[in-house]
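Figure 3 (text version): structure tokens given as input.
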């Protein structure tokens, strides 16, 4: 099996600092964190938990439905990355700090509460996923206990 490239936290920070739209996937559940840093006088940036989609085109369509006042982001300013660690580790990382800094820099500090709410939703989702795994719900058992 080919070795996976290491995750570069500095690349993720640069994405947060420079992209218009960032989508963060998590390895333990399907939902995504959508960070749309575009704003105008009437519309602040958006931070929300969104369902996974099957393609970039589908995500762009979703963005047009959710925020029609903005043109679709150009590909160089639209970034997706997967965070392989826990949601708690994401919150403690320099990537999360970059998200908070970027939101503050827009002058829309109230969006920080949306970011914290989104983090709470992600943490709850991860906990439910872990409970489901322990209970065997929505997971296939690889080794079954032999009946005696």
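Below: residues designed for each position.
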């Amino acid at each position: 099996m080919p070795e996976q490239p290491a995750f570069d936290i500095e690349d993720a920070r640069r994405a947060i600092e420079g992209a218009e739209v960032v989508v963060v996937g998590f390895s333990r559940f399907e939902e995504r964190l959508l960070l749309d840093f575009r704003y105008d006088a009437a519309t602040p940036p958006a931070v929300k938990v969104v369902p996974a989609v099957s393609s970039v085109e589908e995500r762009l369509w979703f963005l047009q439905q959710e925020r029609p006042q903005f043109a679709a982001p150009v590909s160089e300013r639209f970034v997706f990355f997967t965070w392989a660690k826990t949601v708690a580790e994401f919150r403690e990382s320099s990537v999360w700090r970059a998200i908070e800094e970027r939101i503050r820099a827009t002058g829309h500090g109230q969006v920080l509460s949306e970011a914290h709410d989104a983090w709470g939703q992600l943490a709850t989702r991860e906990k439910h996923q872990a409970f489901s795994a322990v209970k065997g719900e929505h997971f296939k058992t690889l080794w079954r206990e032999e009946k005696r």
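The radius of gyration is 17 Å.
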